[in-house]
Write a structure and sequence with these properties.
heterotrimer, A mainly alpha (234), B alpha/beta (253), C mainly alpha (233), A: 234 residues, mainly alpha, 85% helix, 0% strand, globular, C: 233 residues, 6 helices, 77% helix, flat
Chain lengths: 234, 253, 233
């Protein structure tokens, strides 16, 4: 790849990401609904566990991550519904826009949208489960949330790009995505727990490492594979 | 079908041909939407594809635009293979389809700006705001440049997607039923644009039911029936669809 | 002549010898090898559990390689091979769980525990099972081949990440014993079984991918006869 085509792809990513973010913004009532859905899931968990506040504190990280995961699924499906309505995505391929550029633009916009969930879901989880908003590990929390958004976005876009063309997309996307995200979910649950309850054994490093490796591998791998997913196949 | 017989039917290929197909077919599940299609379009020609609903017009145009893969046959579009060299083919081809390929959430101006920015990223010259406004005026959408495409009627969408073919630096323009869903001025506009594309030296292939317009605009015509070429020749000599002799199976007679 | 016969028969040869080796190896493991010092007779399950585990991973590695070939070439043959290998890998992983449980119950006192390898195998099983599930939802053959390959590649890359992640999450499973620390008479039946399972797996993959090729061919229909046209060129 020459420098010029690399620059061309970067320019395409920027143009497409601007388009994706603009569409997300125009569709912001939908984002609000997704955020509300996440809050609702958090509330349901606290009802399911019951009034035992200790159990709630123990599991708070896990509940937060599950709420994020469920909201992600909804957001991804909506995002690709817009792409397929009236064949817009196909139109981009005809222009022709590069498959990698379409992928990275979409992944960036999905990750940014997920990032927006953080300032709502995290404080709500803290209030519901712990009873107070702890601002101690704020920087760490933000960093972890960023990794979570990146880790969910790349495989999410790849698989939503596939399943959104199928009739059974509603069940297939979670089926494919959730088992794949196990490393992200486990690391996040542990890391959130460490932030909230302290890290005497200094384990945070290993969880951040696995998140970084996951994000790195999947942003590269899915970017390569998305090109194939878009095409009809040979 | 022996290969020798198949190639004897197809016309010899010349390097100047814009489109050249031999024995092209496409199967969806157990149904062949297209079969045994031999087609040759010379550069700069305007060709019309005529056929009833479900006769394979859309499939053929999608194959030529490298959106749909042929199940069999040999094919070249602008000198490239639409499956293995799809990016090159897409660079040379514009497709105006039933689907508008538009984002409902963007307005007309933003839509055109997105196209020009993506083309600019591939080395085309940049297009200014003034020029985009002129382009929108040229298809009669100047006064609704800021209206989201979601609120457009079918005809307005078609006008906007027509601009794509005008902006793209492609040598081949494919139009799928361009006259459908348009008011008489809109149909007039499409006819004019097809003429403009032709005079600019671009190869035009369009599918249509409007036989009168087809005879007037196109130099050559291809009639598709049940996914096969039933007739091809000069557009002026094209028979009415009802007058075409009933197709018989060639084998088993 | 001989070459053609060999081409047709080689999976059968693998299958037969694999079955034979499994019989010999298992008989040896159950009767000839001495019981393990600490665990007693229970440890005999290892002579089948460990070969199945290793071969499951190996078969999924095959699937990964086939998937790359399928994506690269677009040939139906590689798509059939990928599907076959994923299916055999799923079956082997399915076998892994009960044989592991048979060992876990007397030793750890529970049928199931969230330790590294159990968790990784279970999630791996689900991951590859969803590849097969997705396949059944896609009608277009080209798309089905591409998506099978893509999901197989992604799932395979995920397995080591899951492994490390779960290892840090919780660990209980015993460290794998290197053959040196195990009685030599236990090693021989295990080795025989390892190759037995491998040969059997190769047989099944070959058989299954032939079957898939036939199924794909069965989906195809010949194009309709060419119509007589009144072509006036």
């Amino acid at each position: 790849m020459t420098l010029r085509t690399a620059g061309g792809i970067l320019a395409q990513v920027l143009a497409l990401a601007a388009k994706d973010l603009r569409l997300e913004w125009r569709n912001r009532s939908r984002i609000v609904a997704v955020v509300l859905f996440g809050v609702l899931v958090l509330l349901l968990f606290s009802l399911a566990v019951g009034p035992d506040s200790r159990a709630l504190v123990e599991a708070s990280g896990g509940f937060l991550v599950i709420a994020l995961l469920l909201s992600t699924t909804l957001g991804l499906q909506e995002s690709f519904r817009l792409e397929h309505a009236d064949g817009a995505l196909e139109g981009l391929r005809l222009l022709p826009a590069s498959g990698a550029a379409i992928f990275y633009a979409k992944a960036i916009s999905v990750a940014l949208t997920l990032l927006l969930l953080g300032p709502v879901l995290a404080p709500v989880a803290m209030i519901l489960y712990i009873g107070e908003v702890a601002l101690g590990g704020l920087a760490q929390l933000i960093g972890l949330w960023l990794l979570a958004a990146l880790g969910l976005a790349a495989p999410g876009v790849l698989y939503a790009g596939m399943t959104s063309r199928l009739r059974s997309q509603d069940v297939l996307l979670p089926l494919l995505l959730y088992p794949l995200e196990v490393p992200v979910l486990l690391s996040l649950v542990k890391a959130f727990g460490l932030v909230l309850r302290g890290d005497p054994m200094e384990q945070m490093g290993s969880w951040v490492t696995i998140l970084l490796v996951f994000v790195g591998v999947y942003w590269l791998l899915c970017g390569i594979l998305f090109e194939y997913v878009l095409e009809e196949g040979t | 079908m022996p290969a020798a017989a198949a190639s004897a039917r197809a016309e010899a290929r010349e390097p100047t041909d814009a489109i050249w197909c031999e024995g092209v077919g496409r199967r969806f599940g157990r149904r062949w939407a297209l079969a045994h299609v031999d087609l040759r379009v010379r550069t700069g020609e305007t060709t019309v594809i005529v056929g009833a609903n479900g006769s394979g017009k859309t499939t053929l145009l999608r194959i030529l635009a490298a959106l749909c893969h042929p199940s069999c046959g040999r094919i070249e579009v602008a000198g490239h293979h639409p499956v293995t060299q799809r990016t090159r083919v897409r660079r040379q081809v514009s497709l105006i389809s039933h689907q508008s390929f538009l984002y409902g959430g963007l307005d007309a101006f933003e839509t055109v700006a997105l196209w020009t920015r993506l083309l600019e990223a591939q080395g085309e010259p940049p297009v200014g705001r003034q020029r985009i406004a002129e382009l929108l005026d040229s298809v009669g959408l100047g006064h609704v440049a800021g209206v989201p495409v979601r609120d457009f009627s079918q005809g307005m969408r078609k006008r906007l997607s027509l601009l794509r073919a005008a902006i793209e630096p492609s040598r081949i323009v494919l139009l799928d039923e361009p006259f459908a869903a348009l008011d008489p001025p809109g149909q007039q506009l499409i006819s004019e644009w097809i003429g403009v594309f032709g005079r600019a030296g671009r190869t035009v292939v369009f599918a249509s039911h409007a036989l009168a317009a087809a005879r007037q605009l196109a130099t050559r015509a291809v009639v598709l029936q049940s996914g096969q070429v039933a007739w091809s020749g000069p557009a002026a000599a094209m028979p009415e669809l009802g007058q075409l002799p009933a197709l018989r199976a060639a084998e088993g007679r | 002549m001989l070459k053609r016969a060999l081409k047709r028969l080689w999976p059968g040869i693998f299958g037969f010898s694999g079955l034979l080796m499994l019989l010999v190896g298992s008989t040896l493991a159950l009767s000839w090898a001495p019981p393990e010092r600490h665990m007693g007779d229970v440890s005999r399950i290892f002579s089948i559990h460990v070969p199945v585990a290793q071969n499951a991973l190996l078969v999924l590695l095959f699937a990964f390689c086939f998937a790359i070939a399928s994506l690269w070439t677009g040939r139906r043959r590689w798509d059939a091979a990928t599907t076959a290998a994923v299916e055999v890998g799923v079956v082997l992983t399915l076998l892994l769980l009960p044989t592991g449980m048979l060992w876990a119950r007397p030793t750890w006192g529970v049928w199931w525990t969230w330790d590294v390898r159990l968790t990784t195998s279970l999630i791996g099983l689900i991951l590859f099972a969803t590849v097969l599930a997705l396949r059944s939802f896609v009608e277009d053959e080209g798309r089905r081949a591409t998506w099978t390959a893509v999901t197989t590649i992604v799932a395979f890359v995920d397995v080591p990440l899951i492994y490390f992640c779960v290892r840090w999450w919780r660990s209980l499973h015993q460290v794998q014993s290197s053959p040196e620390t195990v009685d030599a008479m236990m090693v021989l039946p295990y080795r025989i079984n390892a190759f037995g399972v491998l040969f059997l797996a190769i047989y099944l993959i070959a058989l299954r991918s032939r079957l898939e090729m036939r199924r794909l061919a069965g989906e195809e229909v010949a194009p309709p006869p060419r119509l007589a046209s009144s072509t006036a060129l």
